[in-house]
TrEMBL record:
Belongs to the IspD/TarI cytidylyltransferase family. IspD subfamily. This is 2-C-methyl-D-erythritol 4-phosphate cytidylyltransferase. It comes from Streptomyces candidus. GO terms for biological process: isopentenyl diphosphate biosynthetic process, methylerythritol 4-phosphate pathway. The lineage of its organism: Bacteria, Bacillati, Actinomycetota, Actinomycetes, Kitasatosporales. NCBIfam families: ispD.
Length: 249
């Protein structure tokens, strides 16, 4: 049996967020980047990897039919080898990822979890994550060193300046991106073990860390940034324009 068959790899794309920080409008994943919905860019980014044969899109709970219709509209722009399934999402990212995991068929053993909000991740980054998991790492995250110095503060809600309590050593810090890659059984265990209360965990790898399992880092990519605030849309469209100029993407 080939690696492809033995280590069948699927991507779960949580896309159920509202995009509050981006401002009013459609759910973030459905907003356009150079005329194409962000979610379509994200699905294509996963499908670009020959390792990924299934993509599970976790849609806004009240928008699964709309997302299905959108994906059907763009079917011609996806590789034939990739199956795309849509499931309704939850209240938090953690809950949405869990709902995506629940939809995976039995034969999937490697899972990527990729934010719809990181639509421009290059295929080399996706492949590096898959390769590290297939080589035996239970959990893999792409990450970059930080440009800013980071301060730990004592948060205040009264509008007063927040006191700084520590300055972690920057050289030891990494800004973590997606896709994050996992041995399926370990990710499922993490989602069964870590409570989904409150805002939930901000990334899946953090949940695996709480199990005491090792998580390793591979190099991330500047273009895998998260579209979070309005300025990020400007940057994303500039990246797409540069790709089009460079290689007709
Ligand atoms: N209930 C939720 C919340 C978030 N996400 C997804 O998780 C990813 C990362 O979340 P984020 O960038 O914070 O997106 P939003 O929650 O939409 O943003 P905001 O916090 O600004 O509302 C996004 O692809 C988002 O769609 C999700 O699937 N389900
Ligand atoms: C998973 C993530 O993209 C890694 O950086 C990030 O934690 C998502 O955070 P968000 O607040 O849900 O955007």
């Amino acid at each position: 049996m080939t690696d492809e068959a033995r280590l069948r790899t699927a991507a779960v794309i949580p896309a159920a967020g509202r995009g509050v920080r981006l401002g009013p409008g459609a759910p973030k994943a459905l907003r356009a980047l150079n005329g194409t919905p962000m979610l379509i860019h994200a699905v294509r980014a996963m499908a670009a990897s020959r390792a990924v044969s299934l993509v599970v899109v976790v849609a806004p709970a009240d928008g699964a039919a709309e997302v299905r219709a959108l994906l059907d509209e763009y079917e011609h722009a996806m590789p034939e080898r990739t199956e795309v399934v849509v499931v309704p999402g939850g209240e938090t990212r953690q809950q949405s990822v869990k709902l995506g995991l629940d939809a995976l068929p039995e034969d999937v053993s490697v899972v990527l979890v990729h934010d719809a909000a990181r639509p421009l991740v290059p295929v080399d980054t996706v492949d590096a994550v898959v390769e590290a998991v297939r080589d035996g790492a239970p959990a893999v995250v792409p990450a970059l060193p930080l440009a800013d110095t980071v301060k730990q503060v004592e948060p205040r809600t009264d509008g007063q300046p927040e006191p700084v309590v520590a300055t972690p050593e920057r050289a030891l810090l990494r800004a973590v991106q997606t896709p994050q890659g996992f041995d399926r059984a370990i990710l499922v265990r993490a989602h069964e073990t870590v409570p989904a209360s409150g805002e939930g965990a901000t990334d899946c790898a953090g949940m695996v860390e709480r199990l005491g399992e090792p998580v390793v880092v591979v190099p991330g990519h500047e273009e895998a940034f998260k579209v979070t605030r309005p300025l990020d849309l400007v940057l994303a469209e500039a990246v797409l324009a540069r790709r089009r100029a460079n290689d007709g993407f």
